[in-house]
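Help wanted!
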Amino acid sequence: GDSVTQTEGLVTLTKGLPVMLNCTYQTTYSPFLFWYVQHLNEAPKLLLKSSTDNKRTEHQGFYATLHKSSSSFHLQKSSVQLSDSALYFCALRETSGGNYKPTFGKGTSLVVHP
Amino acid sequence: DPKIIQKPKYLVAVTGSEKILICEQYLGHNAMYWYRQSAKKPLEFMFSYSYQKLMDNQTASSRFQPQSSKKNHLDLQITALKPDDSATYFCASSQDLQQNTLYFGAGTRLSVL
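Answered by r_m:
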C-alpha cells in the first residue's frame, strides 16, 4: 500500500534560518503530493501541492519540488518566521489505480524561536 | 464564514455512552471524510464517502458508524465510548473522491472519562 515518511518529531529553529522538512513516499501509481499545515488548535489546511515531476511549487514563502526519481517532496523555506511554528503534514494521493484515499505522514512539528 | 461546520467543538462523555459528531459542508463537494487525530496517531483516516456512499472504511471497530442523511452531511456516531476514543475528530471534504485537495473542518475535541 501507499505510505509517507516524514522527518519525525520536533524541529526547532531560530527565526530567520532556513528549514527543510523531509518527505518521502511509496506508491505503485502516479502520485499527487501535498503539504498541509496545522497551527495550534486549528484545522489542517493546504500549504502546497504538486503532481508534476521536477517542478518547484511555492506558496507563502514555502516551496517544494516533487522528485519522482527519489520519491521525495521535501518542504523548504529560506527564512522561517515565528508564525511558521506549526505541525506540518506531508500527504499522498494516487491519481490512478483506484485508491484515492489520502495517506498522511505522521507530521513534523516546527517550533521557531525568536 | 466556515465552509465546513462541525458540532460540537468540544465534547465530554462518560465511558460506555454514545455520542454523535455532526459535520456539514457548504463547498458543494461530493466526497466527505472523517479523520481522527491523537497524540499517538496524527491524522488517522477513518472513512470516506462519495455521493453519500461509503467508499472506504479503515476503522477496525464497528462502534464507529458514519451517517449521511444528505449529500453535504456526514455525521459520526460513536457507541460504547472508551477513554482511548479521546481525540480530535476532523471532518473533511473534496470536490470528488478523485479531486485531490482536502478541506478540513475545525474539529470536534472528544474527551471520554
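OP: Thanks! One thing I noticed: The mean pLDDT of chain A is 92.
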